[in-house]
Amino acid sequence: METTLLIMAAGIGSRFGGGIKQLASVDDYGHIIMDYSIHDAIEAGFNRMVFIIRRDIEADFRAAIGDRIEAVCAGLGVSVGYAFQALDDIPGALPEGRSKPWGTGQAVLCAREQVRGPFAVINADDYYGKQAFVNLHRYLIERNGDRSLCMAGFILKNTLSENGGVTRGLCKADEQGYLTEVTETSDIVKTPTGAAVNSAPVDPEARVSMNMWGFPSPAFMDVLEINFRRFFDESVPKNPLKAEYLLPMLIGTLLRRGEVTVRVLPTGDKWYGVTYAEDRAAVAESINRMVSDGLYRADLYSDLARD
């Protein structure tokens, strides 16, 4: 069975001083965060990697990781593809003056021709840990129904930055572990006692979405497309320059309509990410420590080599 990992890497540079944060090295061996996600995904069983990028960064992306990963994957029986997020890939006319990307929902939809089986979605600039990929892949190959989605549920305190506020999808689940509500919450900051938003405490043990979703069937692309048209008809006219089609918000809407279920797959792994330029040093220190502790090899992909 082909299981695909979609890696969203089109939204580069914001909050990182204009640099391409996804392409910044995070260890002493020249690897970037995506390397670790790709390694962990292949180790978990994913056998297709698809990069969602913009055309204008294609050359830099291929030079930094794309060509190298294609060579690695070729020796592991893992295929690689590209999808390109474009401002004009929309079901209507581009609003005059619009320069803001359309969001993660459109990013995933741009990869519709690259997906032929169950698939998962991640951010390019997040380190998720090994267990999250194992949990997602196991769920995806269990042949759950087309509308039976899943997500990795991280513990909020494990996902905060030391250098500023972050946006997280705060989740509520029922006793069976199914998502009942996801609330996109901005500017969550780390505090001495846990976490807060606008000085109001937030439960540091709460489960959060880190945009790590699983979809048992490519049929979900049809759902994305139908709702993107609805978004373009209903939301864009109200806010043509800034309206965004965000994956967590769409899934929240589908939940409220009763059109999908979402199984929360708990993980205790520590998240690392380069949200701010200042995060890079701490991420590099943590990943180098994991290499020293033997969780990864300095020659990262060598433990995946097949006979």
Keywords:
307 residues; Spore Coat Polysaccharide Biosynthesis Protein SpsA, Chain A; 11-stranded mixed sheet; 13 strands
What does this structure look like?
By secondary structure, the protein is of the alpha/beta class. The protein has 7 helices and 13 strands. The strands form 2 sheets. Strands 1, 2, 3, 4, 6, 7, 8, 9, 10, 11 and 12 form an 11-stranded mixed beta sheet that branches. A hairpin with a 5-residue loop joins strand 7 (166-173) and strand 8. Helix 1 crosses helix 4. The longest helix has 17 residues, at 58-74. The protein is globular, with a radius of gyration of 19 Å. The chain starts with a strand and ends in a 15-residue tail after the last helix. The model is unreliable at 13-18 (pLDDT under 50).
Short description, anyone?
With 307 residues, the protein is of the alpha/beta class. Helix content is 28%, strand content 25%. Helix 1 (33-44) crosses helix 4 (130-140).
Q: List the uncertain runs.
A: 13-18
Strand content: 25-35%
Distance between the termini: 20 Å
What is the rounded Rg?
Answer: 19 Å
Round the mean pLDDT to the nearest integer and report it. 91
Oligomer: single chain
Shape: globular
Number of strands: 13
Broad CATH class = Alpha Beta
The main β sheet shows up as: 11 strands, mixed
Looking at CATH, the homologous superfamily is Spore Coat Polysaccharide Biosynthesis Protein SpsA, Chain A
Secondary-structure element order, N to C: EHEHEHEEHEEEEEEHHEEH
> Could you please say which CATH topology applies here?
Spore Coat Polysaccharide Biosynthesis Protein SpsA, Chain A
Structural class: alpha/beta
CATH architecture annotation name: Alpha-Beta Complex
